[in-house]
Amino acid sequence: MNAAAALFSHYRRHPLQLVALALMILISTMLWSGMNHLTDQARSSLGRAEQSLSEGSQVIREDGAPVTVADFARLRRAGLCVMPWLEVPDPDGVGRLIGIDPLAAACFASGAMSGEQPALDGEPFIDMARAARLAGSPGDEAPPLVLLAADSVSADGLPTGYALASFARGPDTGELGASFLLNLDALGVLVLLITALLLRAVYQLSIVQRRDSFALLHRFGVPGKRINGLLMIEVLVLAGVCVLPGVWAGAQLARALGEGFGRSLEGLFDVTLYADGSQWWRSILVMMIVVLIACLPVRTLPHWLKRSRGVGWLGLGLLAIGMVWVAWSPGLVWTFVAVGLVFVGAGVLVPRLMAGIMATLSSRVDDPLGRWRYRELGVMARQLALPVVALQFTLALVLAVQTLVTTFEATFEQWLDQRLAAHWYVQVPEGRSGDRAADWLAQKLEPGTAAWHRIRRGTVMVDSGAGPSHRVDLLAVSPIGPLMEKWTLQSSLAHPWKLLADNQGVLINEQLALRYGVGVGDSLVLTLNGRVQSRTVLGVYADYGRPSGEVLVNGADLPADFQPEFESFSISPGGRGEAWLVSGFERIWQVPEIEIRENSDIRAMATRVFRQTFVLTRAMTFLTLTLAGTALLIMGWVFITSRAWYLQLLVTWGLSRREAFGELVRVSLGLTTTVSLLALPLGVWLTWVLVHRINPQAFGWSLPMAVYPGFWLELLALSTVIGLGIAALMGRQLRPGRMVALPANQSGGGER
Amino acid sequence: MTPPVLETKGLSKSFVSGTERVDVFSGLDISLAPGQSLSLVGRSGSGKSTLLNIVCGLESADCGTVSILGQRFDTGDAESPRARERRWASLRRQRIGVVFQDANLMPALSLADNVRLRARLAGRSTTDSQDWLQRLGIGELANRYPDQVSGGQRQRAAMAMVFAMQPDLILADEPTGSLDRHTADEVADTLFALQADAGVTLVLATHDTELAGRCESILDMAHRNDPGPGG
Q1: What's the rounded mean pLDDT across residues A120-135?
Q2: How many structural domains are present in chain B?
Q3: Locate the ABC transporter domain: which residues (chain B) (predicted)?
Q4: ipTM, 2 decimals?
Q5: Which of A523-532, A599-608, B3-12 has the highest mean pLDDT?
Q6: Chain A CB contacts of B118 below 8 Å
């Protein structure tokens, strides 16, 4: 037998350890590369959305009104190279189609949109005529027309009443999109960190168990360098064999989660997820490096760091700095750095804290068996520090994500209830006005028993006085009545709805407030159809799931010539039924058929779509938790195997095997329960960071902070399952006739 | 006539190695009166440790009877394994003290706590652990942990544990096997002195012929003879 065979014979005796190691590398690779695959796609899709026409510009009307076909004709007649651009939803699937006019595009030959149109590769372009037909489909919001300007068009050359503006598809997602990607990257790094910790834990155990073999080989004349080289080859072979199928499994995982993730991207940023190929070689390279780093021996630590107290103080210091930093961090990157510091601090402190708690408890217990139990737990906390910390991080992450998602669902449902308070929803047909319908409703419905309002949407230029004007969404509602007064406002002046009804100001959404630093009582200058008005901000309302800023005005305050891009009615007709409404509207609008929808249907659909938003996050945290739980299970098993002698000693001293198994269960449960209990404060803190720091910085809107003790119980139940799993695996060691030999290196007393 | 503390009749044990059945011992008869001492000698694999494990219930024989401290365990009995396990556990807990070659102590407990734990399990809640350690000559080490004392001191602590439980029978498996000659002699002196003082029955498995000779009778497991007079 040569040195290599002697070294690797360890796995012949411990095949499960090899299987665990291989599985861990494979699952880690799958999780990270799956995550990375989706992040790559999102980055590419967001990049396309922003870059495809980032250098382009559009012609807008100075009066703030949307451009029309008439404007296009006038500009072309003036000899300017402009092209109509109309984005419509794809009727056959998820995503959007873009209508362009190829003839009008001909003059872009020397411009950014010219020639091979490299920026447009892969975009689903269709002819303008077809896009216009799709835009007119009943039930869809009419999209705004954009007039793209070629590079040759200058502001000076435009006719009076027009101006040049930069063109970006959809809302300005630049910073938010980057933050979203940063969130995904952070989640990916966290997954990588946790899996690296677990890998290291399992591999180090095999190293510890082989220490005697290494010493023996060294005494037999095998140089230390050769042993290290063989170990390196072992790691490389193992990584090579497991990383490749892991990357493949990651691609499958990304495919499985792709639909939900695509919906998230659309819901959050109006960006279609393009199924690009990920750079798989990068995943392989990164995972190989991670596996190598995780399995390489740690070089000697500085002396002061080796001392337990020094490390404890370091951990405490990092924890404190991270917590303060999070509260004051100016941006998302710093927030993540601070969260990282807190995690490192907690990771350093927790095993020591657990050992300290157990030492204190053992000194307070008079029963020597109870004292032994606490002492054993203290040893476990130190010996299993890496998987314990990984499990704690994962439990904290699961708690935070679960709380965030549940809070989001609860808040979103309440928000939907408020927005869809009316029973019926009717969209004004293309080419019709809502004026007569509004008069009819006002005439026929009694305010006491029925309620309704008219919604008109468009865009408005807003100047907050702190920078350039911005075009934001406009939501005009009239009359201001009971359907709106139940809206929960994040902040407001006294009696905001009455003030709005009296045209004393406007309300704005949270996104606009956060992005432009506008608050209640501030003044906004609104430019709409050439009319410039200063309005006070009466209140700020939550507006989930989209990045656009929005101003809510009283519909009665709109200029007479305002042309809405979209118009609808929300109606609770009291004693009147659907048929009455349908016939009334058909008569007024002179259309053969109108579409009237129950808000409860819309609500159900919106809830379904929104729940997709967190499918990925939930799946990733669940898989990471499974991995961490399995790792602790394996590590606990290996650890208790090394302590099995002492359990058998209890049997020798007269405990029945059942009683000894009871002690094993107590110790296992004690470990996992303590980990869970210590994970709870970290999880609650992480929830706070997600809700109050990361979410507003990443998405532009925030959620109320909530805690769900039910989740705590769920996590405790989960840790109980893991603890029982360790005990059940170990119970085999206590079967009659299975006296386990004491490890040679423990004859001197073993770890304490 | 005083009934024997330990009596075996027709005790046999074998194991399977590959496809071959290997007899460890068969038809073994032993009888030990209170206060008697017996040494088991023989080469490695002759069944010394296996016999000790069987007479304290940690392993079961293939056939035969073990009568110990008034309780009878017959491989032919219809008694449920759980009930049998309970009876054995009760005997080990209160009346049989076991000393191994190594690692008789819980590493996470101090020497004093180890003695207290063993005595408490035996129902001797008032035992003064410090006193027993003192009698074994290691009183000043009471608060140290097993890895902080020498091998000889650990074996003395192990004996303190056994005597603190005031057993009727002590089973010692190579109790001095890992110690140097001088320390081994000291530990053996202490063991036999306390055994004689307490009138406890002792069964001792050892390779050390000198140590074996200090018992009243010797059983050579490799070339089995009837237990004869020691010395």
Answers
A1: 64
A2: 1
A3: 6-231
A4: 0.89
A5: B3-12
A6: 653
Residue among B106, B118, B148, B153 with most chain A CBs within 10 A, to mutate: B106
The whole-number pLDDT of residue A477 equals 93
Q: Tokens 């922003």 sit at which residue?
A: A50
Task: Please check whether residue B140 lies inside any domain of the structure.
Answer: yes
- How many CB pairs (< 8 A) connect A and B? 101
Cβ-defined contact of B89 to A379 (cutoff 8 Å) = no
User: Which one, of A572, A310, A560, lies nearest residue A420 by Cα?
Assistant: A572
Residue A423 is encoded by which pair of tokens? 């029973």
Which residue type occupies A114?
A: S
**Structural domain contains residue B1:** no
Mean pLDDT of B105-117: 91
**A368 to chain B: which residues are within 8 Å by CB?**
109, 113, 116-117, 120
> What mean pLDDT, rounded, does chain A reach?
78
**Angstrom distance (rounded) from CA A725 to CA A723:** 5
Strand order in the sheet with B20-32: B20-32, B6-17, B63-68, B71-74
Cα–Cα distances in angstroms (integers) from residue A250 to residues A28, A189, A194, A284, in the given order = 9, 15, 17, 11
- d(CA A397, CA B162) in angstroms, rounded, equals 50
Maximum average pLDDT range among A133-147, A513-527, A636-650: A513-527
In a domain, B174, yes or no: yes
Residue B113: per-residue pLDDT: 92
Q: Which two tokens stand for residue B146?
A: 């097993």
Residue B228 forms part of a structural domain: no
A748 contact residues in B (CB cutoff 8 A): 146-147, 151
A586-600 CB burial, b ≥16 within 10 A, e <16? eebbeeeebebeebe
Q: Which of A368, A659, A737 sits opposite B59 (nearest CB)?
A: A737
Q: Is B194 on the interface with A (CB under 8 A)?
A: no
Alpha carbons A61 and A41: distance in angstroms, whole number: 36
What is d(CA A12, CA A527) in angstroms, rounded to the nearest whole number?
78
Q: How confident is the model at residue A311 (pLDDT cuts 50, 70, 90)?
A: confident
Structural domain harbouring B192 = 6-220
User: Do residue A376 and residue B91 have CB atoms under 8 angstroms apart?
Assistant: no
Higher pLDDT, A127 or B111: B111
Task: Note the pLDDT tens digit of each residue in A449-478.
Answer: 888 999 999 888 888 777 677 888 899 998
**CB A28 within 8 Å of CB A247:** no
Residue with tokens 């509004």: A438
How is chain A split into domains, by residue range? 1-52+178-299, 53-166, 300-417+613-752, 418-611
**Interface residue of A358, A383, A642, A652 to substitute, partner B, most B CBs within 10 Å:** A652
- Residue found by looking up tokens 């409404």 in the block: A581
Instruction: Give the type of residue at A37.
Output: H
Task: Give chain A's length.
Answer: 752
Region A120-141: mean pLDDT is 61
Q: What is the CATH number of the domain that holds B174?
A: 3.40.50.300
Question: Is B145 near chain A, with CB under 8 Å?
Answer: yes
The closest CB to that of B109, out of A371, A653, A742, belongs to: A371
Nearest CA in chain A to B113: A368
Residues B61-91 have pLDDT tens digits of: 999 999 999 899 998 888 888 899 899 999 9
A572-607 confidence digits (pLDDT tens): 888 788 888 888 888 888 887 787 888 888 778 777
Q: So what's the pLDDT on residue A743?
A: 47
Determine the Cα–Cα distance for residues B148 and B160; give it in Å rounded to an integer: 17
